Structures are given as structure tokens and as C-alpha cells.
């Protein structure tokens, strides 16, 4: 076991970073400190960049929506992926 890695921690993957960003956006919306639509376009673009690291998808592949009802907020994210990975994805 590498003790130095244990105490320093592992670098986060892009998926973990995207998950952390989603948590921040949801927390801001719940506290009323930020208006959801201001952050959603940027969040959508960043998620699209992360997905494109692994597979080529069109611009409209990521759809992010916020639904509010009965005092609850739900952040819904849909990512449309192709059936098979395409060649040339970075």
C-alpha cells in the first residue's frame, strides 16, 4: 500500500467533478441564492464536453431540466448516447 497516496487522496475523475458541480447547482437552487436557468446552460455545456471526451454526440444530446412541485425541486438530466461508440472520439 502506498501510504502517501492514502493520505493525499486520489485525483478526481471527470465524472466525480461533474457530480460535484451538479450538487453545487442543486444546493444553490434550494437555498434560493441563484436562479436555476442562469446556471443550467453552462452546466449543460460542461456536461457535453465531458461526454465528448468518450463518445462523439450532437449538441442537443444533453438535456437538463428543473421541475418544481409541492415544495420539491428535481434536476432531471438526459444524455442521448449513440448505440455504438464512434471512432475518433478524443
Distance between the termini: 32 Å
- Could you tell me the mean pLDDT? 75
Poorly predicted spans: none
Strand content: 15-25%
CA-based shape: flat
Helix content: 40-55%
Which class best fits the helix and strand makeup? alpha+beta
DSSP E strands, number: 2
Q: What about the largest sheet?
A: 2 strands, antiparallel
What Rg is obtained from the alpha carbons, in whole angstroms? Answer: 16 Å
Tell me the number of structural domains: 1
Number of helices: 3
Strand order of the largest sheet: 1-2
Pattern of helices and strands = HHHEE
Could you describe the 3D structure shown?
- This protein has 90 residues and is an alpha+beta fold.
- Helix content is 46%, strand content 18%.
- It has one domain (12-79).
- The protein has helices at residues 3-8, 14-31, 36-52; strands at residues 62-69, 72-79.
- The chain has a two-stranded antiparallel sheet with strand order 1-2.
Topology (elements, then pairings):
Layout (H helix, E strand, L loop, with lengths): L2 H6 L5 H18 L4 H17 L9 E8 L2 E8 L11
Antiparallel strand pairs: 1-2
Helix pairs in contact: 2-3
List keywords for this structure.
single chain; 90 residues; alpha+beta; two-stranded antiparallel sheet
Short overview:
The chain is an alpha+beta fold. Helix content is 46%, strand content 18%.
Amino acid at each position: 500500500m502506498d501510504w502517501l497516496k492514502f493520505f493525499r487522496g486520489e485525483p478526481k475523475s471527470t465524472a466525480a467533478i461533474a457530480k460535484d458541480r451538479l450538487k453545487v447547482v442543486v444546493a444553490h437552487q434550494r437555498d434560493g441564492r441563484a436562479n436555476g436557468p442562469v446556471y443550467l446552460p453552462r452546466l449543460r455545456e460542461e456536461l457535453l464536453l465531458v461526454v465528448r471526451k468518450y463518445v462523439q454526440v450532437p449538441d442537443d444530446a444533453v438535456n437538463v431540466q428543473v421541475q418544481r412541485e409541492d415544495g420539491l425541486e428535481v434536476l432531471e438530466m438526459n444524455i442521448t448516447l449513440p448505440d455504438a461508440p464512434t471512432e475518433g472520439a478524443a
